[in-house]
Design a protein that fits this description.
By secondary structure, the chain is an alpha/beta fold. It contains ten helices and seven strands.
Amino acid sequence: MTSAFKDHFSGHAGDYRAFRPLYPAALVDVLADAAPGRGLAWDAGCGNGQLSGDLAARFTRVVATDASSTQIAQAVPHDAVEYRVAPAEHSGLPNACAHLIVAAQAAHWFDLPAFYAEAKRVARPGAALALVSYGVLEADGEVGALLRTFHDDTIGRWWPPERAHVDNGYRSLPFPVPERPVPPLAMEMPWTLAQVVGYLGTWSAVKAALKATGANPLDGFVPELAAAWGDPDAPRAIRWPLAVRLGNL
């Protein structure tokens, strides 16, 4: 985690928007219930807004920031969401304005001390602060085992070092406030084979392997996955357990 922005996603922001899973409504409920008010929520490192629009259902206004202009250009429009190109460490928000500050699947890229200083600056008294992450997708049977092997072994050496924080549910990251208990949460999607393959193609390790070797690791993996899947148009239950670190500033 450094102050230099490591952009692993702008080159495939469209795929990121198309194939990333959706956060459950229960997560938004947990975040909103922890906030001292429902005025402004700041979604830091928002990508192209996977969580931003959902926050707008519970907060009057959402400001969603990302350091990648390409990601912001792909963001899903919403009347209550203002998207801005800005790093998490320098939001451009005024002092003491936010009831909720959340970073979803993004905090491992931040300069965390600088982000926490910024969060404390923009927070209203008692504002909720949350770091949300999700790790490896899960599926039943042989499909799940193959996906785990692909993540850990086939492309394991191509993951950036920051990925380790995601794999351990952000427990290795410092957190500046006492934590609140959070019930078990997960993203669950009924996905076809094509949707899973599209999602795998957004992984930074897949992109890194292709760049380094000239060969897409999915080319050899997809036929093996397809054989285990069966009917490619038959959706399977895909699950991503969520890790949430939540407290009040």
